[in-house]
Design brief:
By secondary structure, this protein is mainly alpha-helical. The chain has one domain (about 5-70). It contains 2 helices and 2 strands; from the N terminus they run αββα. Strands 1-2 form a two-stranded antiparallel sheet. Strand 1 and strand 2 (about 45-50) form a beta hairpin. The longest helix has 21 residues, at about 5-25.
């Protein structure tokens, strides 16, 4: 067996659970995707949405989680 392989599977499983819960609860969290700084351009036949602020916050949260689990 590869050392640390089981621990890696547990961490991946926990991440999948967190991502799944985020998808389930995303409608109930009103501010996700509608933060100041998110870009939303709407024209007649065109709509563009880029959630830059939401992406940055999710990136910070994931960085903190990965640094916690790395130790």
């Amino acid at each position: 067996m590869i050392p640390g392989f089981g621990k890696m599977f547990i961490i991946i499983g926990i991440l999948f659970i967190i991502i799944g819960l985020a998808f389930i609860l995303s409608d109930k969290i009103p501010f996700i995707g509608r933060l100041p700084g998110d870009i939303h351009i709407k024209k007649e036949n065109f709509s563009f949405y880029f959630p830059i602020t939401t992406s940055i916050i999710i990136s910070i949260i994931l960085t903190l989680l990965f640094s916690i689990f790395k130790k």
